[in-house]
Amino acid sequence: MIFETRQRRFLAEINVIPLVDVVLVLLVIFMVTAPMLYRGMDIKLPTSASNTIKPEIRAVLTIEKDQRLYLDKDQVSVAQLERKLHLLKQEQPV
Q: What value does the CA radius of gyration of the chain take, rounded to a whole number of Å?
């Protein structure tokens, strides 16, 4: 009896082509069905008869390096600044 010594090689590589095919098909399915799932509910929001929100009046005070004062874009002295701030406070009470 003669024994043949043949070595068998095992195929150790994984064939990824079918996996890629399946993943691409699933990707296409999700891309097609995802926009169909986006649906909103139609609701009627309550409305207000009067507008109770008043816009805020803001003032910007700027002090420069040479001690000049500006209220918004107008140059003011310290006395004028105090007077204008009191007027703004009376127009818009907090």
A: 39
* Number of domains into which the chain is organized: 1
Q: Model confidence over 66-92: pLDDT tens digits?
A: 999 999 999 999 999 999 999 888 887
Report the distance separating Cα 31 and Cα 25, nearest Å: 10
What is the pTM assigned to this prediction?
0.40
Burial of 76 (0-12, 13-18, 19+ CB in 10 A): middle
- On the CB side of 74, how many CA atoms lie within 13 Å of its CA? 8
Residue 65 belongs to domain spanning: 61-91
